[in-house]
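lol ok so funny story. i was supposed to be doing the assay writeup but got distracted and ended up predicting the structure for this chain instead. priorities right. anyway since i did it might as well share w the group, maybe its usefull for someone
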Amino acid sequence: MKRSYWHAAALLCLLGSSVANGQGWKSLLDRANAAFSRSRSDSAILLGRGALDEAVKESGWYDSSTAKIMTRIGVFYAGVRSDSAEACYRRALEIWEHASNANPAEYAKTLNNLGVLCGVNRFSEAESYLLKALEIKRKHLAANDPSIASTLT
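and the output, tada:
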């Protein structure tokens, strides 16, 4: 218990220093990605949430940066809490649908992630997300883009 308390306290200090230094959400998201690559999902989630808070302050909820961060937090959760990952992906989709600066490829990536997550036990739901992601990717990406092939597999 002590270890997790000190770990959380250290992460909160990192969050505060990144924001105080004007590095904002991009720096926090970079740190979250680095933590995730070192198999530190707990740290990645906390840092990702900090990045999300800063992005919302900077641009509001309905902005592509907020949707992208929410999708990434879903990825961080996917290996440890699929219910939380699903909630993040669904919220990201809602944000993408209302964002004035939406990026179709990133929206499709979120659909793809949700489809893969649902594919574990809800096949027809997964299929609908994956088909929609494929349709968007085919419309907005080059025919030889690798992310089209990844949706097909």
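The CA atoms of residues 94 and 137 lie 18 Å apart. Confidence is low (pLDDT under 50) at residues 17-22.
back to the writeup now i swear
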